[in-house]
Design brief:
This protein is an alpha+beta fold. It is built from 3 helices and 6 strands; from the N terminus they run βββαβααββ.
Amino acid sequence: MEFLQPPGWARPKGYSNGISARGRTVFVAGMVGWTAEERFEAGDFVGQAAQALRNIVAVLAEAGAGPEHLVRLTWFVTDKREYLASGKELGAAYREIVGRHFPVMSVVEVKGLIEDGAKLEIEATAVVPD
């Protein structure tokens, strides 16, 4: 995996501008912040984000992959201000679950999500080296 940082560009915080990778691709469906039993135990943004990230890591494990193989995360959030306001706590939860691996990321504010009570949904793509 090679992280792509064009010369002269400011280094992004919490994500990468680009990644080049070779291997087996693993696609993870949009994960919301509920448990394996499809129950929301957390009502707050950071709690749901942490659970969604744990769900992603669990699916990756089924493919023999880990967070270090992530190349893309796409976040769909229902409240941009809530996402921005939770930066410090969200960063701590992310580092605890994913580590200091920062794939390319996009964050999109959406009007709503299919699952009632969900504050966010995260899709993931990973590449496991050959």
